[in-house]
Each structure stands twice: as structure tokens, then as C-alpha cells.
Please model this.
Amino acid sequence: MDFMCIKIKKIIKQFVEETKLGKEIELNIEEWKMKKILIIEASPRNGYCKAISDDILKQLGDIYELDLISLRDLNIDSCTGCSICLFAGSSKCPLRNDDVIIVLEKMMWADGIIFVVPNYSLGVPALLKNLFDRLAYLFHRPRLFHKVILPVIVQGVIGGKKIADYINKVMGYWGMNPVKGVVVTGGVYLNKEKSSQLIQKDKHTIGVGLKRFSQEINRTKVKSPSNLSLIVFRMARTSIKYGEDALPPDKAYYQKLGWFESNYYYDVKLNPFRKIVGICIDKIAKRMVMKV
Ligand SMILES: Cc1cc2nc3c(=O)[nH]c(=O)nc-3n(C[C@H](O)[C@H](O)[C@H](O)COP(=O)(O)O)c2cc1C
Model:
């Protein structure tokens, strides 16, 4: 697999170890080593998704600090739709004593997350959808900034690309930087051997995805928001600041993080033109909210 940057890091690491170079280089190597990757495997059975996750673990093992969770091994109760997390805060969720918090803590720990997900009826399996629902307050109060997401969809025949796009969209709203997902083949029968040709094809596909993911995770500059993300932020904060129906936890969260005054969710320089556009959106949004 073409992992040029990973190979280079390995060579430099070996070089540093052999020559005992100064602290500065060792520190940089430490930084690389410190990147943390979480794999979230979302199949209800120990099948192709698990095999693919294990393979990814092997490929990335030398380079990153890794963790894998299989959602089927956790106890995550079904969202009941009470919406208490939205209007009273996530700590008031009546189901808060199950494992959902473990998943969120691990997501907060990671620099990058790889979702390995089976295609179920052209969508994500209920296990994963339930996780999204249980954490849906993150649409209102995003917090996974500067983290990279790669979806790997495992399917029988058709529909995987849209699922990858859907996962990226959700994670984008939660603050993450999405990397174009990949789709590989699984199958219904676990005892049916995949042809070596198919295995090679899947390995190549996953390799392309991991390369994109590695490049994004090693990015040194803070990512500038897209125009759409900037508009979403400015509209949301204005409606939370002035809207009669704004939810108290959202208001408190934005206040605490200084988002009513900031350019964006995180510290990022906007060029003068984008600054002006931002101010115009604030004004338009305020007029819209106050009219309602
Ligand atoms: C309930 C169910 C629905 C499925 N729906 C689709 C589908 O819509 N499109 C598809 O290509 N494969 C579909 N599949 C096939 C799975 O994506 C495939 O078996 C995959 O390998 C499952 O991952 P696993 O082996 O980790 O369980 C479905 C399988 C199941 C059990």
C-alpha cells in the first residue's frame, strides 16, 4: 500500500533511535506518535466489518495510538425522544447511566475517527443510528472540532456511497473534518471466502481512504471553515442569542465558549471579505429572528 508519509516517519524514527539525535526531532516524532485514532465498528455481528477493522488496526498500529470499539459490545439504550437533552441539557438524560458516555469520551479523546459500518437497507444499522440519536444534542452544541472522520462502508451490493456521505454530514455538524469515505464489499455468508482479487481490490480502496485520512490528520494548519459552515454558525448563534424559543442549554453553551462574539466556533483568521460577509449574515439573521 502506498503510505509514503507513514514510511517516511518510520524511517526518521529509526534514524533518530539509531543516531540518538537531539530532543527537538524526538519531540516531533512524539507528536506524530501521539495522534490518536478511534475505530467505531457498527455491525450487530462479528462479521466483515470486524475483520476489516482488525485489518485497519494492523495497518495503522505502528504509527498511531489506537482504540477500537464495537457498538454491539456496549449497552446503549434506545433514545426515547423525550428531548430532555435538548431543552434541559445532556446531563439530565434519563438514560445517562448506560455506555453512551463512554463512546463520547473516546470520541473526544481521538484525533481521528474511522467508522466501519455495514450497509443495512441502504442506511446505517440501528445500533449506529441510535448512537447518533442519543448524541443528537451535538447538532446544537458541537464539540468535535479539529478531529478527522473517515467512513468505511461494508456492503453486499449497492448504496454505500450515500451512507458514507450521510455519516460525514452528521459528523460535520458535530464539528469534525470529514474525509471522503470508501465503500468495500462484505457479504451475507461469513463462511464464503472472498476471492483474492476482491480482497486486493478492497485493500486498495481502504488504502486510498487511509491515505486521505492520514494526510488530513497530519495537517498542521487549522482548517478554514467553508462558506456554508460559516453561514450555519452565524445563523445559529444569532437565533440562539435573540430567538424567543432559544433553548437555555444552547444559550449557556454559546455564552460559555464566547461564541456570541467570536468569528467562528474556533479561533480562525477570516480574510476581510469573509469578515464583512459574516457581519452581513449576523445582521440579516438578527432581522429574521426579531421579526418572528
Ligand atoms: C438487514 C440487512 C440489510 C442489508 N441491506 C443491504 C443493502 O441495502 N445494500 C447492500 O449492498 N447490502 C446490504 N446488506 C448486506 C450487508 O451490508 C453485508 O452483509 C455486510 O457484510 C454486513 O456487514 P457485517 O458482515 O459486518 O455484518 C444487508 C444485510 C443485512 C443483514
